[in-house]
Design goal:
The protein has helices spanning 5-21, 24-31, 35-49, 65-92, 104-121, 173-179, 227-235, 245-253, 284-297; strands spanning 54-56, 61-63, 96-102, 125-131, 145-149, 158-165, 167-171, 193-196, 204-209, 212-217, 223-224, 240-244, 258-260, 270-276. The chain is of the alpha/beta class.
């Protein structure tokens, strides 16, 4: 008799349960079947294949070599079915964990406030967010989505542009009262400039004078790996810093920081991207999260 795929999948499920539990009665309890129904299913598989898959005694069931081979194949096929059904289910109602890496300041100020709306829209997705200015390796599986600033290096990752940001030089009113306010970029040689310590960062700040761009080397007592720390130090009156607008916008609005040398600002913009592993096998949960970021952050 010809069997359809659903019948064979059910037979495999029963066979795997017997092999795992070690008896027909235990497998029957797991699957809601009688021991005799489980036994008949195994007999039917053996008759169709023409080989003995299990050796039965009154106390124990033992798989033959052929039974071990069939068990391995059955587990793989059932796992493939589960994966296929989960993939289809994800298209209708995305679910699962999305690991997100975002910078401290931008993540705290712009990404975290959006998460409540996202999880209300997609209640079956769990967002696992890590705020750090350390660059994580998305290709190696350290995150599903990372938000990156600046030009992107060549890589197999897919990038989705989320927007851009500028940079502003700032200091606190207290610092300026003590040290004076710089009126031209060269005045910064007499100030404590707080900079980034990234390997890709150079101790130079860009300026534009009379339509010409140039870079000025700056020095200071502290370097840090994130704009939020530099902003905190500037608010505390430790020195002058140049960071992303999103890091200092609140402090400027509150009067805790003062923009400096705006007439010499180059007006350069730094792109912001979400990077992730794309392609045909991209999980729906990652796709909808990236789409959401693009929708809300633009």
């Amino acid at each position: 008799m010809q069997m359809n795929g659903a019948d064979r999948a059910r037979e495999m499920e029963i066979f795997v349960a017997v092999a795992k539990s070690g008896s027909f009665s235990a497998a029957g309890r797991i699957l809601g079947l009688t021991p005799s129904a489980v036994s008949r299913t195994v007999d039917r598989i053996e008759a169709r294949l023409g080989v003995r898959l299990m050796l039965r005694t009154t106390r124990v069931l033992t798989l033959t070599a052929e039974g071990q081979t069939y068990l391995g194949a059955a587990r793989r096929i059932l796992a493939d079915l589960d994966d296929a059904e989960q993939g289809i289910a994800d298209q209708g109602a995305p679910r699962g964990r999305v690991r997100v890496s975002a910078s401290l300041a931008h993540g705290r100020q712009h990404v975290v406030p959006l998460l409540g709306d996202f999880v209300r829209r997609y209640p079956h997705i769990l967002i696992d967010i890590n705020l750090t200015d350390v660059v994580v390796d998305v290709a190696a599986g350290q995150a599903d989505v990372a938000i990156r600033f600046g030009p992107l290096a060549d890589s197999p990752l897919t990038a989705r542009r989320l927007g851009d940001t500028g940079r502003t030089i700032v200091a606190s009113p207290d610092y300026l009262a003590r040290r004076g306010t710089p009126t031209v970029p060269e005045d910064l040689h007499d100030h404590d400039c707080l900079n980034f310590n990234f390997r890709r960062a150079e101790p130079v700040w860009p300026f534009r004078r009379d339509g010409r761009d140039y870079a000025l080397t700056v020095r200071g007592p502290i370097e840090a790996n994130n704009g939020e720390t530099l902003t905190q130090l500037a608010v505390a009156g430790v020195g002058v810093t140049r960071v992303g607008n999103f890091s200092v916008a609140d402090a400027i609005d509150a009067g805790r920081l003062v923009p400096l040398l705006e007439d010499f600002n180059t007006g350069d913009r730094e792109p912001i991207h979400a990077v992730f592993v794309g392609g045909a096998n991209m999980p729906a949960r990652v796709r909808v999260f990236v789409d959401f970021l693009a929708e809300r952050l633009r």
